[in-house]
Amino acid sequence: MAKVVAKSFPMNGGEGVYSYTQNSSHQTTWTTNLQTLTFRLLTCKTLNPLVLHQFLSDILKFSTSDPFTIADFGCSTGPNTFLVVQNVVDAVKLKYQKCPSLSMHSPEFQVYFNDHIDNDFNTLFKSIPLEKQYFAASVPGSFYDRLFPKASLHFVHSSYALHWLSTLPSELLDKNSPAWNKGRITYANAPDEVVKAFKAQFAKDMSSFLNARAEEVVPGGLMGLLLIATPDDIPSPKSIFAGLFDLMGSCLMDMAKIHNLTPKEMEDLVEINGCFTIEDMAPLIHMASDAEKCSKHLRAGMEGVFKEHFGSEIMDELFDRLTRKIEESLILSEG
Predict the structure, then answer these.
(1) Which of 166, 203, 246, 330 is deepest in the core (most CB within 10 A)?
(2) Where are the alpha helices (DSSP H) in 165-290?
């Protein structure tokens, strides 16, 4: 029986005014902060000794035909993915330079850029740095499935992508279910059953992601993940992101399959999975104070979902309304 492929809703492609390329400065800020964490993980002496020893042991096995492999899951159309990749390359090169037994054997680098099949890979590769220090290839497909051979990746990165669920929990659309999410586009101001349905789907998806990567990452390999999250002491439905989507829902009824986790929730899922340990976790806080800019960022990421339900004709009016509602709500000043 053929496998059913879920519909995908990639970020807005191209380089226009509402494209992801032109509206991802929030992610750039978060990515820049993540670079510091990633660089520290790859180069610092305080890294878990067992992990560091295994990581370097794998590097020592390299020959000229064995590249250091990096995969960015949810790469979209750039340019943030290129910043991350270059940071990892620089960190690994520095590790080689500081290790006498490795300094003369720096490997070549192979980078895989992953996103949905419908992602605008043409725009991605048109903007790839000419001076790149790695070989590049695209790997289309869902990161909730296996995408690479066993033990083939040395460093995995994903930022601002894992909050996207693989599918909308079916009970949200079932009128006979206590989790029927009538009149809402997310779980803000929804019954507890709705929140539980989102959490259960996120746990299932994260388990799939971790299990797939556990097969693909070399022993001692590393992952750097940047996720949208809410502090442990604040219920996810009360987060600023849930509030923004609630405003969007007041402009239009229907949509979204996103979950905004808490750090504790992620720690528990990693512990349950048992294939990885968390070496470091840090909050990265950044939110636009400009309603129009915020609306454009949401449009770059969410327009594909809305077009699927309502067509493209209403997009301008929808996001104009959203901009006004964000201004009137003062939600950005509360974040």
Answers:
(1) 246
(2) 192-216, 240-251, 263-273
Q: Which two tokens stand for residue 241?
A: 């992101």
Q: Is domain 25-334 annotated with CATH 3.40.50.150?
A: yes
Kindly report, residue by residue over 95-123, the tens digit of the pLDDT.
Answer: 778 777 666 777 899 999 999 998 999 99
pLDDT of residue 256: 41
Structure tokens at 143: 């990161």
In three-state secondary structure terms, 279 is coil
Query: Cα 196 to chain center, whole Å?
Result: 22
- 242 contacts 194 by C-beta, under 8 angstroms: no
Q: At what angle do helices 25-43 and 291-310 cross, to 10 degrees?
A: 100
* This prediction's pTM: 0.72
Going through the chain in order, the beta strands assigned E by DSSP cover 68-73, 109-115, 135-140, 153-159, 217-226
pLDDT digits (tens, 9 = 90+) for 285-304: 555 568 888 888 778 777 87
**Residue 87 CA to its chain's centroid (Å):** 17
The three-class DSSP label of residue 224 is strand
Domain ranges in the chain are 25-334
CA–CA gap between residue 108 and residue 134 (Å, rounded): 7
Place of tokens 């976790």: 281
Q: In the structure encoding, which two tokens stand for residue 146, read together?
A: 């296996």
Supply the pLDDT for residue 35. 53
Please state the separation of Cα 280 from the chain's center in Å: 17
**Do 33 and 80 touch, CB atoms closer than 8 A?**
no
- The tally of CA atoms less than 13 A away on the side-chain side of residue 143 is 27
Residue 234 CB partners (closer than 8 Å, separation 6+) = 262
For 145-154, write each residue's pLDDT tens digit: 999 999 999 9
- 109-115: strand order across its sheet: 135-140, 109-115, 68-73, 153-159, 217-226
Show the tokens assigned to 256: 């979204």
